[in-house]
Amino acid sequence: MTHEAPWQLAQAVCMRMTQMYPGDVIIGGVYGSTARGTDTAWSNLQMLFIVRDSSPAKGQHFIYRGTAVGYLVIKEVALMETLTTPMLKWPFYMGVLSVLHVLYGDPGQD
Q1: Which of the 8 DSSP states describes residue 75?
Q2: What is the C-alpha to C-alpha distance for residues 7 and 22, in angstroms, rounded to an integer?
Protein backbone atom coordinates (compact mmCIF):
# COMPACT_ATOMS: atom_id res chain seq x y z
CA MET A 1 0.00 0.00 0.00
CA THR A 2 1.15 3.52 -0.71
CA HIS A 3 0.90 6.18 2.00
CA GLU A 4 -2.35 7.43 0.46
CA ALA A 5 -4.05 4.02 0.56
CA PRO A 6 -4.14 3.69 4.38
CA TRP A 7 -5.70 7.15 4.62
CA GLN A 8 -8.41 6.17 2.16
CA LEU A 9 -9.02 2.94 4.07
CA ALA A 10 -9.15 4.83 7.38
CA GLN A 11 -11.70 7.26 5.97
CA ALA A 12 -13.80 4.34 4.72
CA VAL A 13 -13.66 2.59 8.12
CA CYS A 14 -14.56 5.85 9.84
CA MET A 15 -17.53 6.41 7.52
CA ARG A 16 -18.71 2.86 8.08
CA MET A 17 -18.51 3.23 11.87
CA THR A 18 -20.53 6.45 11.81
CA GLN A 19 -23.13 4.78 9.59
CA MET A 20 -23.31 1.61 11.69
CA TYR A 21 -23.56 3.56 14.95
CA PRO A 22 -25.35 6.81 14.04
CA GLY A 23 -24.95 9.42 16.75
CA ASP A 24 -22.64 7.21 18.83
CA VAL A 25 -19.21 8.13 17.46
CA ILE A 26 -17.84 11.26 19.13
CA ILE A 27 -14.34 11.12 17.64
CA GLY A 28 -12.75 8.77 15.13
CA GLY A 29 -9.17 8.95 14.03
CA VAL A 30 -5.88 7.38 13.06
CA TYR A 31 -2.81 6.99 15.26
CA GLY A 32 0.53 5.26 14.97
CA SER A 33 2.82 5.38 11.96
CA THR A 34 0.04 6.39 9.56
CA ALA A 35 -0.79 9.46 11.65
CA ARG A 36 2.90 10.34 11.95
CA GLY A 37 3.50 9.85 8.21
CA THR A 38 6.15 7.20 8.85
CA ASP A 39 4.17 4.19 7.64
CA THR A 40 5.70 1.69 5.24
CA ALA A 41 4.33 -1.09 3.08
CA TRP A 42 4.57 -3.33 6.17
CA SER A 43 2.74 -1.00 8.56
CA ASN A 44 -0.63 -1.73 10.06
CA LEU A 45 -3.48 0.77 10.28
CA GLN A 46 -4.38 1.76 13.84
CA MET A 47 -7.56 3.66 14.65
CA LEU A 48 -9.38 4.88 17.74
CA PHE A 49 -13.06 5.63 18.16
CA ILE A 50 -14.43 7.40 21.21
CA VAL A 51 -18.13 6.60 21.52
CA ARG A 52 -21.06 7.54 23.71
CA ASP A 53 -21.46 5.48 26.85
CA SER A 54 -24.59 3.72 25.57
CA SER A 55 -22.98 2.60 22.30
CA PRO A 56 -22.75 -1.12 21.53
CA ALA A 57 -19.71 -0.54 19.25
CA LYS A 58 -16.69 -2.76 19.85
CA GLY A 59 -13.15 -2.77 18.48
CA GLN A 60 -12.07 -5.09 15.71
CA HIS A 61 -9.02 -6.42 13.92
CA PHE A 62 -9.01 -7.61 10.33
CA ILE A 63 -6.87 -7.89 7.21
CA TYR A 64 -7.76 -5.79 4.21
CA ARG A 65 -5.78 -6.33 0.99
CA GLY A 66 -2.76 -7.47 2.95
CA THR A 67 -2.89 -4.68 5.54
CA ALA A 68 -3.63 -5.42 9.17
CA VAL A 69 -6.28 -3.03 10.44
CA GLY A 70 -7.23 -2.59 14.06
CA TYR A 71 -9.48 -0.14 15.75
CA LEU A 72 -10.06 0.45 19.41
CA VAL A 73 -13.39 1.60 20.71
CA ILE A 74 -13.56 3.26 24.10
CA LYS A 75 -16.59 4.75 25.75
CA GLU A 76 -16.36 8.41 26.68
CA VAL A 77 -16.73 7.85 30.43
CA ALA A 78 -14.07 5.11 30.43
CA LEU A 79 -11.63 7.36 28.58
CA MET A 80 -12.26 10.26 30.99
CA GLU A 81 -11.74 7.93 33.96
CA THR A 82 -8.51 6.59 32.45
CA LEU A 83 -7.15 10.06 31.75
CA THR A 84 -8.02 11.53 35.15
CA THR A 85 -7.07 8.59 37.37
CA PRO A 86 -3.53 7.20 37.35
CA MET A 87 -3.67 3.64 36.06
CA LEU A 88 -1.78 1.34 33.74
CA LYS A 89 -3.68 2.40 30.60
CA TRP A 90 -2.99 6.13 31.12
CA PRO A 91 0.34 6.30 29.20
CA PHE A 92 -1.08 4.32 26.28
CA TYR A 93 -4.14 6.52 25.79
CA MET A 94 -2.17 9.74 26.32
CA GLY A 95 0.27 8.57 23.63
CA VAL A 96 -2.55 7.71 21.23
CA LEU A 97 -4.32 11.02 21.79
CA SER A 98 -1.09 12.97 21.34
CA VAL A 99 -0.70 11.74 17.74
CA LEU A 100 -4.36 11.10 16.85
CA HIS A 101 -5.28 12.51 13.48
CA VAL A 102 -9.02 13.14 13.76
CA LEU A 103 -11.07 12.05 10.76
CA TYR A 104 -14.49 12.47 12.39
CA GLY A 105 -15.67 14.70 15.18
CA ASP A 106 -14.35 17.83 16.84
CA PRO A 107 -10.54 17.71 17.20
CA GLY A 108 -10.85 20.03 20.22
CA GLN A 109 -12.49 17.19 22.15
CA ASP A 110 -9.55 14.79 21.89
Answers
A1: E
A2: 22
Count the residues in the chain. 110
Q: Which residues contact 77 (CB under 8 A, 6 or more apart)?
A: 53
Choosing among 3.40.980.10, 3.40.50.720, 3.90.1150.10, 3.30.460.10, the CATH entry for 4-109 is 3.30.460.10
Q: What 8-state DSSP symbol labels residue 105? A: S
Once rounded to an integer, what is the mean pLDDT over residues 21-39?
94
Q: What is the pLDDT of residues 45-98, one digit of tens each?
A: 999 999 999 999 999 999 999 899 999 999 999 999 999 987 899 999 999 999
Q: Please choose, from the candidates 1, 8, 101, the residue with its C-alpha nearest in 3D space to the C-alpha of residue 42.
A: 1
